């Protein structure tokens, strides 16, 4: 995996092969960050990465100057790898939490300007995830929620959806309150 832009641009990070993840492709990640660069000043962003996996998206947030990043994943192997990588990068703006995403969302009292969520391939609770984030007010006013998903998921009826983009088999749905 490669960091595209920012202070760690072109840095390659090799995740252990045994992590239970499917990282966002470079093609999709490049497309996503082209969109985000036109909408967000990363230097003023408190970001949340749900289902953080390898930390791929979080490293990009930090590299581009995010004020702070919180990574949540229930896998001990994933959170250990992300923590070690942030230590290697000397990224003190990062907090890594090993916890189920829904437990985290029900317990947190923090809010975020940008939330990225990339649930596992077989995830069945997309609507509940989006509803929980908005009902609990976890996304700041004018904040942006980005949800990565497959083509079989449709949010066209959600009142917070503003856009969907497709990069190969990867779909990103964008929500704003």
Counting structural domains, the number is 1
Looking at the structure, what is the overall shape? globular
Shape-level CATH architecture: 3-Layer(aba) Sandwich
What does the average pLDDT come to?
A: 93
* Terminal Cα span: 32 Å
Assigned CATH class: Alpha Beta
Count of helical regions: 5
- The tally of beta strands, per DSSP, is 7
Rounded to the nearest angstrom, the radius of gyration is: 15 Å
Portion in beta strands: 25-35%
CATH-derived topology: Rossmann fold
> Unreliable stretches, pLDDT < 50, 5 or more residues?
none
What is the strand arrangement across the widest sheet?
3-2-1-4-5-7-6
Q: Which class best fits the helix and strand makeup?
A: alpha/beta
Q: How do the helices and strands line up, and which of them pair or pack?
A:
Elements: H1 26-37, E1 46-50, H2 56-63, E2 68-73, H3 76-89, E3 94-98, H4 101-107, E4 112-117, H5 126-135, E5 139-149, E6 161-167, E7 170-176
Parallel strand pairs: 1-2, 1-4, 2-3, 4-5
Antiparallel strand pairs: 5-7, 6-7
């Amino acid at each position: 995996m490669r960091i595209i832009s920012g202070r760690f641009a072109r840095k390659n990070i090799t995740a252990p092969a045994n992590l239970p993840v499917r990282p966002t492709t470079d093609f999709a990640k490049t497309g996503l960050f082209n969109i985000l660069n036109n909408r967000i000043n990363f230097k003023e962003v408190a970001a949340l990465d749900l289902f953080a996996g390898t930390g791929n998206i979080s490293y990009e947030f930090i590299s581009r100057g995010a004020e702070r990043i919180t990574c949540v994943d229930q896998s001990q192997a994933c959170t250990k790898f992300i923590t070690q990588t942030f230590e290697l990068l000397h990224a003190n703006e990062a907090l890594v939490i090993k916890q189920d995403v829904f437990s985290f969302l029900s317990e947190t009292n923090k809010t975020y300007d940008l939330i990225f969520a990339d649930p596992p391939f077989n995830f069945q609770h997309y609507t509940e995830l989006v509803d929980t984030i908005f009902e609990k007010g976890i996304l700041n006013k004018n904040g942006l929620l980005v949800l990565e998903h497959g083509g079989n998921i449709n949010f066209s009826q959600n009142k917070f959806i503003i856009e969907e983009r497709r990069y190969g088999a990867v779909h990103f749905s964008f929500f704003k309150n």
